[in-house]
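the two lines:
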Amino acid sequence: MSQASILIQKINSNTETIGIIGLGYVGLPLAVGFAQAGVTVIGFDKSQEKVDKINSGTNYIQDIRDAILREVVENIKLIATSDFSRIKECDALLICVPTPLDKFRKPDMSYIESACVSIGQNMKPGTFISLESTTYPTTTEDLMLPILEKESGMKHDQDFWLAYSPERVDPGNVSFHTKNTPKVLGAITPDGLEIGLKIYSKAIDQLHLVSSPKVAEMVKILENTYRLVNISLINELALLSGKMGIDIWEVIEAAKTKPFGFQAFYPGPGIGGHCIPLDPFYLEHIAKKYDFDLSMIHAAGHINMRMPHYMAIKISTALNSIKKSVNGSKILFLGVAYKPNIDDARESPALELIHLILKKGGNVSYHDPYISSVETHGGSSLQSVELTPQALIDADCVVITTNHSVFNPEMIQKHAKLIVDLRNVIKDAGDHVYKL
Amino acid sequence: MSQASILIQKINSNTETIGIIGLGYVGLPLAVGFAQAGVTVIGFDKSQEKVDKINSGTNYIQDIRDAILREVVENIKLIATSDFSRIKECDALLICVPTPLDKFRKPDMSYIESACVSIGQNMKPGTFISLESTTYPTTTEDLMLPILEKESGMKHDQDFWLAYSPERVDPGNVSFHTKNTPKVLGAITPDGLEIGLKIYSKAIDQLHLVSSPKVAEMVKILENTYRLVNISLINELALLSGKMGIDIWEVIEAAKTKPFGFQAFYPGPGIGGHCIPLDPFYLEHIAKKYDFDLSMIHAAGHINMRMPHYMAIKISTALNSIKKSVNGSKILFLGVAYKPNIDDARESPALELIHLILKKGGNVSYHDPYISSVETHGGSSLQSVELTPQALIDADCVVITTNHSVFNPEMIQKHAKLIVDLRNVIKDAGDHVYKL
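prediction for all of em together
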C-alpha cells in the first residue's frame, strides 16, 4: 500500500493529526478551525509565551472567540508546543510563519527556511506539507522542495507531498473568516492535490484547485497587488483633489453609485498591515530574475512610501495656519492601528507619521483604545493616553490616523482647536479641520 | 416670477422641451429615454445622415431597440435636426458631444466649445444646460460658463443654469442601460441643481447629487481611471506570468473566488473604446496646471501604449516557431471591436496591432461579424472576410483579438495551424496555441 493510500485512509477515518507551524493571526484561527471540526491539532510556535497562553486556554487573537479556544483546548483537540521534534507525530503540516521584508525591502525567507529545516529533520514518511504564507511565485518548488528533500533524505511524491495554499485572513472582517472564505490550493503532483483537498475540506467550506503551487502563489500576489495599486491610485487622486479644492471623499461616494465596473478604495496616511504593503515587493523580487520591470507596483510603492511625508506636511500646514510650528507643539494622534477596530499596529502608517513628527520636534501623544503601547519606526516607545475632553483641549493639533468606530466625531470636534482628519471621520468640517 | 420658477412650473406640467446635442451612443439612448417618458425631445447633430436616419425611424445604435426608436419618432416625441437655431425652442440642453484626444494626447475641447457657442447664440432666457461628456475637472465652470455668458449676453443663475452630469453608458451591457444606471449630477448653484434633478428624474431612475460640477467631473475620471489602472496592472502581470510559465487566466479565475476586496480584470492586446484609454489623460492635462505628476496614470498609460507592440512580438514569436517571418505570412485577425459583442472599433487595440503587422510586411485579413470594414491606425482600409474553415486553414497564423460570443473555439482550433489567442478563447490549448 502506497504512503498516499495510507494517509488518505487515515484522513477518511478521522485519525490524522495536523500540525500548524506558527500560531499568529493566520495559524491560530486555522488550528482552532481544524480542532472544532474534530481533528487533532498540534500547534507549533517558537514563542513559549504563546504556547503557554494557548495551553491555558488564554486567547490572544481578536478574531477567535475566547470560549471556542478554551473548549478545543479542554477537549485536548488542540495542544500547543515549542518542541519541533513533535513534527513526527503529524500527518500534515501547514506552515503559517511570517514572510516579512528586510530593511532593504527584500523578502526575508528565513522563517520559511527554518520551518522547512525543522520539518525535514523531524517528519515521518507519509507527510503532507502546505505553505500558507505569502511569498513570491516559485518559492514552494524552487526553495522549499530542495530543503525538505535534503534535510529528510526522503523523496517528494513518494514519502511526502508539497503544496501551496495562501491564507486569506482579513482581521476584523465580520462576514468572512477562515472557514467560510474559499481557499486556493495548488500542489506539485496529483496525489498531493488529492490529499490536500481531503485535509483542508475538514476545516474549509470551499477549496478552489489550481494546476500548480506557482499559480496559487501568483493568486495571492495578485489579490494584494490589486489592493496596493488601488489604494495608491486613490491616494494620488486625493492629493491632486486637495490641490484642486475637490473633496475626494465626496467623489468616492458618488462613484460608488455606479452599479458595475467600480470598487471603492479610500485614501489614508499610507498602507499598513502585514500583506498589502509587503506582498507586491515579493513579486518585484522575483521579477528581477526574469529581467522584468513592474512599473505599476513600482509607482504604487512610491506613492505609498511618500504618504506619511505628505501627511507630516499637512500637519505642519495646519499648525502654520495658527502661527505654530511642529517643533514644540502638542500633537495628539487618534488611532495607531493600521485599520479600524483591530489591535494591530504592524506596518501602520501612523507609526511612521508619529516618527516624522517626533523628528521635527513635535510633542507627541497618542490614544488608541485597542493598543496600549507602541514603538515608532524611529524606536521611541509611547503609551496610549486617555481620550478626555481635556486631552483634546490641551493639544495644539489633533490628528485622526485611524477611524475606529468608537471614536466620537462630535466630541472630538467640540474640544479640539485644530484637527487634521486623515480618515474622513469629521463630516461637517469647519475651518479648523484639515482633511486628506 | 423668476426664470427658475417658470421653468420648474413648465417641468411640473410636462410641457418642457429637451434638446440633446450629439446623437451618438450616449445622446441617442438619452433622447429616446426622455421621449419614452413623454417628454418632447429635439435631437441635434451636425451629421445630416444621422438626422435623416432618426427622422425616418432607422436605428443605428446597438443598445436601442429599433421598435422603440420608431415608436417615439412616429409619436413625434423625438425629432432630429441639424439646424442649431432650433436650440431656442428648448428649455433644457443636454450636451453629449465627443471629447477625443488629439494626436499628442491633449484633450480636444473643440466639440464642447462649438456646442457652447451654438447654445449661447441661440438659447432663450430660462434654459438649463448640462454637459454629459467626459472632461477634466473645472471644464464646466472655467471653460463653458464664460463662453455661454459671452455668446448669450445672459447671466448665469438668473437667465440660465449650468450643470455637469457624466454619462455612464456601457455599450453592450445587458443589465444596465441609461434609465436604470444611477446618474451623478453637480450644478454651480442650488437653483441649477433643483432644476437639473427635476429634468433628469423623468428619464433616469436614480440621481446622486454632488456639491459642484468639478466633483461630478472628478467622479467620471475616477471611474475610468480605476479601469485603466487595473487593466494595465493585469496586463503587466500577464506579461510577467508569460515569462514565468504561469497561466494568468487561471490565476484570475482563482483570485475571483475571494469573496471580498477583489474585482477581476482581464488582460488583452491593449485598451479600447471611447472612455478608458482617453479619460485619464484629461486628468493628466489639468494636473499639470497644478504642478502635479500623476505617476499611476502615467505608468498605466505607458503599459497600455506598449501592449500592441508586445502582441506584435508574440505573433512574430509564434510564426518563428514554425520557421516563418511576419513578412509574407498570411495572418487572419478575429475581431476588431474593442470589446465583445459590440460593433464599435474606436480606439480598438486590434487596429493598432493590425497596423504594426502590416508595417512588418504581414499579409493581413480580418473577420468581425459586427464590423464590415475598418481603417487601421496607419490608414489602410480593410474589409471583413468570411470566417470559413478554408480561411482558417489558409492562414499561417490566426490571431484572436476580440472574444465575440459567436466565435466557435472548437472550429477555430480544428482548422487553424497556429493560433495567437489574446482573449483566452481557446481553453484546452495545445502546442500550436500561443496565449497572452
